Amino acid sequence: MNDQKIKPGRLMYLLAAVAFAGAVGVLVWAVPKLIGGIEEMAGMQIVVPGTTEVVLENPGKYTLSHEYQSFINGKRYSTRGAISDLQCTLRSRETGREVPLQPLTYSSTYSIKGRAGVGMYSFKIDQAGTYELDARYPESMTGPKAVLSIGHLGGLIWGIGTFVVGLLAAIFLFIGSLAIFVVTLVLRITRKGKAAESPYAMPPPSGV
């Protein structure tokens, strides 16, 4: 009896290996998308108090966060809970109109590459452009220098969505590869056993 006549053939093992490699490849592709989304959520860093011009390249929703653990321009900042009195306003440089800053009604935090922050406000812009962020303590009060960050929510949502889709695809491919391998192994062992018991069959080749 020829090994090629035992069904399914050994090529099914190769198919299982390809599916497993595909699962690994999808994860390798998806994880950087998630990290990129988190980095976009962390966004640009701004040292306050003071007035700073910021270029917002995409319309949509943004988050203004207090980056209480930060490293910028060779200096490390650690200001958790120290800027509760900081007052912030955002205006379009082109129109002079103020962009409403809405206090966050949900928890928004990030921690990546030595940076950690918590969301303070959300805002939405209708067009990309240059904006001026003014962040100051009241005249009668003083406070420490700190770091704020502006992150684009669209990038984070896209990163998370891409990662979830990639993760589901990887799980599907992994389960598929495992199922193909196990079913192929069981069927080949079973059919080789039956072939060996047949009085008309030649001795089956070694190996599964």
Explain what the structure shows.
The mean pLDDT is 82. The chain has two helices and eleven strands, in the order H-E-E-E-E-E-E-E-E-E-E-E-H. The protein is an alpha+beta fold and 208 residues long. Helix 1 runs antiparallel to helix 2. The chain has a domain at 51-155. Strands 1, 3, 4, 7, 8, 9 and 11 form a seven-stranded antiparallel sheet that branches. The protein has a four-stranded antiparallel sheet with strand order 2-10-5-6, with no helix packed on it. The longest helix is centred in the last third of the chain and has 45 residues, at 153-197. The chain is elongated and about 95 Å long. Helices cover 37% and strands 33% of the residues.
Specify the structural class: alpha+beta
How many H/I helices?
A: 2
Strand coverage percent: 25-35%
Low-pLDDT windows of residues: none
Rounded to an integer, what's the Rg over CA atoms?
29 Å
Query: What integer is the average pLDDT?
Result: 82
Cα(first) to Cα(last) distance is: 14 Å
- Series of H and E elements: HEEEEEEEEEEEH
* Main pleated sheet: 7 strands, antiparallel
The number of distinct β-strands equals 11
Helix content: 25-40%
Write down the overall geometry: elongated
